[in-house]
């Protein structure tokens, strides 16, 4: 765990969660944003990325959803670390899968699952969470921890 306290500044691409924690969302195809790199990231991609900082990879092709149990574990870690570290979530384009992950983080931080997509669209990007099955994943996300292996 990183000993220093370092978080993002509120701004473009940074979602403020109800607890006040800040998490940056982005699309990897858009290049590296200005400013400091993350301390930890969760990446929803079809193939594992190679990055110079600590990260978790969630296998997830474009327009799909990750394994629920894997997502819950990775995002719970991301939420905890966002209290004192710069955390980002990203996919290729920065909307669908990134929006899904941000909405799930919002659920973990207390936003009702039924409201999480609207919360992320208002605070991150109006096009976040792109397809119906991603919406359904977010609505069911709060229930996943009660099911063995996310099933």
TrEMBL record:
Alphabetical list of SUPFAM superfamilies matching this protein: (Phosphotyrosine protein) phosphatases II
Signal peptide location: none
Residue ranges constituting the Swiss Army Knife protein DSP-PTPase phosphatase domain according to the UniProt record: 60-112
Single Gene Ontology MF annotation: phosphatase activity
Pfam families referenced in this protein's UniProt entry, alphabetically: PTP-SAK (PF22784)
Stored Gene3D superfamilies: Protein tyrosine phosphatase superfamily
Keywords: Hydrolase
Listed name of the protein: Protein-tyrosine phosphatase
Organism of origin: Phytomonospora endophytica
